[in-house]
TrEMBL record:
Cellular localization per UniProt: Cytoplasm; Nucleus
UniProt domain FANCL UBC-like: residue ranges: 84-173, 175-271
Name under which the protein is recorded: E3 ubiquitin-protein ligase FANCL
Organism: Hippocampus comes
Pfam families named in the record: FANCL_C, FANCL_d2, FANCL_d3
Transmembrane helix listed as a keyword: no
Top-level EC class: transferase
Gene Ontology CC terms: cytoplasm; Fanconi anaemia nuclear complex
Pathway in which this enzyme or protein is active: Protein modification; protein ubiquitination
EC number: 2.3.2.27
């Protein structure tokens, strides 16, 4: 039973040890000493073995000292262990917060991953990096969010308060994620390939080589998002005209997806009606769909050609041809397929 606990959730061990072996008597010493132990990976089983073999407390403490010394010698010199109060404080704070929220804790007891759920049942992870001077020094927190994570901390704060603040943050973003979840479920998303909770952009397929890039505002998710139509001019122009003419009809009370279809006067192809392969046409130069995460977003404007290209591929192709000319950041040349005029902007500089 005890060894199972060590394996599954090492932090439960010292509490268990106290209760079963030296109940009440060595609360302070064993809790802190064994927490030191727990910070040192690989010593758990020998500690447990000795604990079971010891017949009295003095014998156990001596054994403990020996094992501790051996383990400390194995540690790199730069490794500094926080003071004992750090661990007792952490245990107390975790007891208040609830161990069931803890997904992961590293062997140094400094990085914690807590799970949280918003009111739509979406799972979130809050990563907390505790400083050695915890709680005097604020921990570093991070999560997969579309906005910067700003949590308040004072030396009197606790993990419980931190967690409550995080729940408020994710609750305020629930509407934003609901909007994107509906888009993800009912349309074909070309980009990002696997959206994260922090992604605000979606490139939605409209037809073969035609798509719309929408940028949803996390603070105002139901308002008209920033839109950019991608595709051949003869297809994109009428859509852009519809968007401009109908923009005023946008109704924040109905869904973003429905609004987009209404203002563009289209129906988005959905997984229920179309196969995704219809929209993932490969680049006419490198013959692949994805090239370093990019998908073809340049299209020949000739309606009979409409060949898609990656921006990088088309730029590199046109740049070296003597018939092409460059003006500022735009290269003018001929489509490699139909020889009609085609332009491409310089590939964005990679940082
Ligand atoms: Zn390409
Ligand atoms: Zn062409």
């Amino acid at each position: 039973m005890a060894s199972m606990l060590v394996k599954d959730n090492p932090i439960l061990l010292p509490l268990n040890v106290e209760k079963t072996v030296y109940d009440g008597f060595i609360t302070v010493q064993v809790r802190e000493l064994s927490l030191y132990y727990l910070a040192i990976q690989g010593c758990l089983f020998s500690l447990l073995q000795r604990l079971h073999q010891s017949t009295d407390l003095v014998g156990f403490i001596l054994e403990l000292k020996t094992v501790l010394e051996v383990c400390l010698k194995k540690l790199p010199k730069c490794y500094s262990i926080p003071p004992p109060q750090y661990y007792s404080q952490l245990i107390l704070e975790m007891e208040t917060l609830g161990w069931d929220k803890l997904l992961f804790i590293d062997t140094q007891f400094q990085i914690l991953r807590m799970k949280a759920e918003d009111s739509s049942g979406r799972q979130h992870i809050l990563t907390i990096n505790l400083k050695s001077k915890h709680p005097a020094e604020a921990p570093e927190c991070s999560a997969d969010l579309p906005v910067p994570l700003l949590l308040k901390w004072t030396p009197q704060s606790s993990l419980n308060q931190l967690y409550s603040q995080f729940l408020l943050v994710i609750e305020a973003l629930t509407e934003f994620w609901d909007v994107l979840d509906e888009i993800d479920a009912k349309t074909w998303i070309l980009e990002p390939e696997k959206p994260n909770l922090s992604d605000t952009m979606r490139r939605i397929a409209i037809a073969n080589n035609v798509s719309i890039k929408v940028e949803v505002d996390p603070q105002h998710p139901k308002m008209l998002p920033e839109c950019c139509l991608l595709g051949a001019e003869h297809v994109v122009t009428p859509l852009r005209n519809n968007l401009n003419a109908n923009m005023h009809l946008w109704n924040p009370d109905s869904g973003v997806l429905q609004n987009l279809q209404d203002v563009l006067e289209i129906e988005f192809p959905s997984p229920a009606t179309h196969e995704k392969s219809m929209f993932s046409v490969e680049c006419g130069i490198c013959y692949s769909y994805r090239f370093e995460a990019a998908i073809p977003d340049q299209v020949c404007n000739d309606p009979r050609c409409s060949q898609p290209f990656h921006q990088v591929c088309l730029y590199e192709w046109l740049r070296v041809l003597p018939a092409s000319r460059q003006s500022f950041n735009t290269v003018f040349g001929e489509c490699p397929y139909c020889s009609k005029p085609i332009t491409v902007k310089t590939a964005a500089q990679k940082s």
